[in-house]
Specification:
about 210 residues; Immunoglobulin-like; nine-stranded antiparallel sheet; single chain; mainly beta
Length: about 210
């Protein structure tokens, strides 16, 4: 019986292909012809908001910066001074391709001159008739319920600080329901009656100035 040489050739090729095994011993950092790109991560050690009382100093908690599961270098933008105020530190790590990741920390230094201040109490926003309550938790530190004076804002509580004189602010912090929140254009007057204004930055709150009176 005569077998075609073409048939024998295809049988031989099929046998060779069926015996071939893929080689997964790729050079480090590659998969086939593709290069693996690792993206950096930066996680804060310690709190995102640190409040320094008079007589104390700031100690840098640091961050955990990683690239491909290993510790990597990072840069820090911003410094913490010694005068009362609000300071922001931003930590950034990068990979060789130029992709970056960052995390930020807010440090508030409370001045000696706020020791006798007590801004606690209930304030009403004239524009809505809705109240906001301040509760003093430490020297110069308050929790503020419904800081936007919104009809739907009950239950939202933030940390506000009186860091020197009559200066107040909501330092950047994370709210479980609204994400990052903060304030700007803040003023406080002891009156009478005591009153204050600020722009409250939070999801859905807009950028209008909000004024409250005690």
């Amino acid at each position: 019986m005569k077998i075609s040489t073409k048939i024998l050739f295809f049988i031989g090729m099929a046998t060779m292909l069926s015996c071939h095994k893929d080689n997964f011993n790729y050079p480090a950092g590659t998969v086939g012809i593709s290069k693996i790109v690792f993206f950096p991560t930066v996680a804060l050690k310690g709190n995102a908001l640190i409040i320094i009382q008079p007589g104390s100093s700031f100690t840098e908690p640091g961050v955990d910066a990683q690239l491909g599961g290993k510790a990597t270098t990072f840069t820090t933008t911003g410094t913490v001074g010694t005068a009362p105020g609000v300071y922001i530190l931003t930590y950034t790590a990068a990979n060789p391709q130029g992709y970056t990741a960052s995390a930020s920390r807010t440090v508030v230094i409370i001045g000696n001159d706020v020791g006798t201040n007590d801004f606690s109490g209930t304030y009403t926003r004239a524009a809505t008739g809705v109240s906001s309550t301040w509760t003093k938790t430490a020297n110069g530190v308050y929790t503020v319920e419904n800081p936007g004076g919104a009809a739907v804002g009950a239950g939202l509580t933030v940390v506000a600080v009186n860091y020197t004189g009559n200066k107040i602010t909501i330092p950047t912090q994370n709210s479980p329901d609204y994400g990052p929140v903060s304030s700007a254009n803040e003023t406080y007057s002891t009156g009478p009656p005591a009153h204050y204004s600020w722009v409250f930055f939070a999801g859905g709150y807009g950028t209008g100035l909000r004024t409250f009176s005690k």
